[in-house]
């Protein structure tokens, strides 16, 4: 490897030199495998109970609506309290909620409305959990290794997306759906154990420096003004809003596409999701290797258009392997974009605003899911899964092109 190549790429695991991050990352690696097992089992269970793409999409809607409503309030909380303590509370609550669902499924007493209610409660917990998990990374690795730490988090999440669905498909087929929920409940314990080993110095706990806005609404407005007056934050958030709304609707589209178009069962569905996880993992590894030189603009402004194109292509495949390959490519570019956007937001945010900036990130990335799930669910219900994929890809391209044109005109 020549000198120029060495300067371009770095050790993709460099953030693991930080002991606190090692503990956190290992715990998350275990936990997200359980999370992905539930992500596969829950939509399959809901679709089996209802046989309705719209009711399936409603699960995603109720789970992410709390983020749509409360994310901005959560950002103020994250900026005011130690993130480690917040995560201990949210991870404990997630364990209890998942365990309740596991018991209901195991005893054969689960009904569709149980999934709706528990998904809503889990959504409330995740509204605080997600921005806390995003913004604690800088306290574990520092700004120098922040982008690498974010990429490693994505790698763990997407390695689990490869392993989790495959295991879930086999477990559902041979043991039963309930086992997936029990495994996920147990996996939250790994995060809790890792958090107890993490020691964050008091000086590294971010305090809000702006004492003028002591009221909750005032602090939310202050955070939004901060984003609005920094173009790099504003345009990244706007593009993320489009991508976060209309791309990650796979929990609605893939189960229906697998069953109705490809004529696959639980195992085939799990394998398709693993293809996407493989592509996402490779994308996260690629970004981790490039992290030395910071996020690239091309990943923010151009890659979303590529993602939209692959969504459209996926909808018009009929061969299982080809569908898997297109899902893998979609995953690669999707993670390349989200990791770069996350790093761009955190690196360009001051400490006292980082929690609020990441709460807006959570709002447009995860909080917009109800809108996207509703969009994908209604189109798939009235037409088919092919049209559902195509419609999501088309709207991403149609909405992002004007943003890019406006951005170029403003910078002239």
TrEMBL record:
The organism's place on the tree of life at top rank: Bacteria
Protein name in UniProt: MFS transporter
Protein species of origin: Inconstantimicrobium mannanitabidum
């Amino acid at each position: 490897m020549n000198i120029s190549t060495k300067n371009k790429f770095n050790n993709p695991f460099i953030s693991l030199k930080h002991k606190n991050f090692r503990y956190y990352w290992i715990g998350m690696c275990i936990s997200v495998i359980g999370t992905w097992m539930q992500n596969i089992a829950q939509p399959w269970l809901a679709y089996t109970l209802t046989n309705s793409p719209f009711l399936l999409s409603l699960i995603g809607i109720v789970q992410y609506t709390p983020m749509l409503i409360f994310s901005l309030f959560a950002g103020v909380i994250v900026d005011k309290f130690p993130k480690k303590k917040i995560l201990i509370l949210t991870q404990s609550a997630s364990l209890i909620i998942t365990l309740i669902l596991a018991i209901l499924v195991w005893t054969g007493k689960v009904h569709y409305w149980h999934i709706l209610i528990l998904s809503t409660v889990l959504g409330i917990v995740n509204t605080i959990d997600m921005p806390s998990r995003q913004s604690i990374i800088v306290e574990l690795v520092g700004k120098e290794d922040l982008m690498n730490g974010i990429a490693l988090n994505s790698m763990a999440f997407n390695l689990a997306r490869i392993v989790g669905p495959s295991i879930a498909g086999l477990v559902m087929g041979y043991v039963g759906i309930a086992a997936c929920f029990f495994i996920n409940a147990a996996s939250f314990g790994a995060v809790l154990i890792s958090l107890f080993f993490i020691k964050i110095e008091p000086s590294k706990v971010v305090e809000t420096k702006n004492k003028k806005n002591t009221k909750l609404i005032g602090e939310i407005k202050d955070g939004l003004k901060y984003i609005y007056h920094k173009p790099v934050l504003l345009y990244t958030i706007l593009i993320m809003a489009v991508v976060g709304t209309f791309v990650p609707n796979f929990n609605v589209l893939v189960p229906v596409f697998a069953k109705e178009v490809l004529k696959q069962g639980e195992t085939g569905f799990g394998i398709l999701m693993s293809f996407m996880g493989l592509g996402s993992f490779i994308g996260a590894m690629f970004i981790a290797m490039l992290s030395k030189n910071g996020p690239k603009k091309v990943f923010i402004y151009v890659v979303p258009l590529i993602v939209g194109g692959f969504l459209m292509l996926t909808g018009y495949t009929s061969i299982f392997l080809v569908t898997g390959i297109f899902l893998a490519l979609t995953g690669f570019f999707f993670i390349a974009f989200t990791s770069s956007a996350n790093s761009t937001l955190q690196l360009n945010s001051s400490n006292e605003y980082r929690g609020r900036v990441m709460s807006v990130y959570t709002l447009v990335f995860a909080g917009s899911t109800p809108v996207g799930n509703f969009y994908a669910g209604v189109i798939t219900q009235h037409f088919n899964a092919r049209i559902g994929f195509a419609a999501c890809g088309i709207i991403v391209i149609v909405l992002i092109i004007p943003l890019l044109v406006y951005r170029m005109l403003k910078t002239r």
